[in-house]
Amino acid sequence: MIATQQDEQLIRLASAASLVEKLTGERPHVSTMHRWALRGSSGVRLKTKYALGAKRTTAAWVREFIDEVDLVRTGEVTPHPSELRSKKSRLSRIKAELDAELSR
Predict the structure, then answer these.
(1) Closest Cα to residue 11, out of 72, 60, 45, 44?
(2) How many angstroms separate the CA atoms of 37 and 92, rounded?
(3) With helix as H, strand as E and coil as C, how does the chain read?
(4) Contact 40, 92 (CB under 8 A)
(5) pLDDT tens across the length of the chain (104 residues)
(6) Fewer CB in 10 Å around end: N or C, the chain?
């Protein structure tokens, strides 16, 4: 696929939600877009850049994210091991915090 200038233009995550709607027929909430950028989905994160006071992405990165999540969920590829490690360490930290709270 040939990348167009529109594919490379940085857009706010709120605008990217309407792009997801065009691709999938469903519009995610802007908080979902931020969650995909911060924590990801199925071990895949939405690529972003911080520019002019906001996180931004591109149309190409959104399509890449959707395709990669599909590949992981269908079992065709596995998420990068660093993504799995970070998820496990985050869960371990949360569990330790909960245990500490419950022991008080």
Answers:
(1) 60
(2) 21
(3) CCCCHHHHCCEEHHHHHHHHHHHHCCCCCHHHHHHHHHCCECCECCCCEEECCEEEECHHHHHHHHHHHHHHHCCCCCCCHHHHHHHHHHHHHHHHHHHHHHCC
(4) no
(5) 445 566 688 999 999 999 999 999 999 999 999 999 999 888 889 999 998 888 999 999 999 999 999 888 887 766 666 555 555 666 777 788 888 888 87
(6) C
Whole-angstrom Cα distance, residue 36 to residue 30? 10
In the block, tokens 């529109």 appear at 6
Paired tokens of 3: 């990348």
Which residues share a beta bridge with 51?
Answer: 54
Put the strands of the sheet holding 11-12 in their side by side order: 11-12, 54-57, 49-51
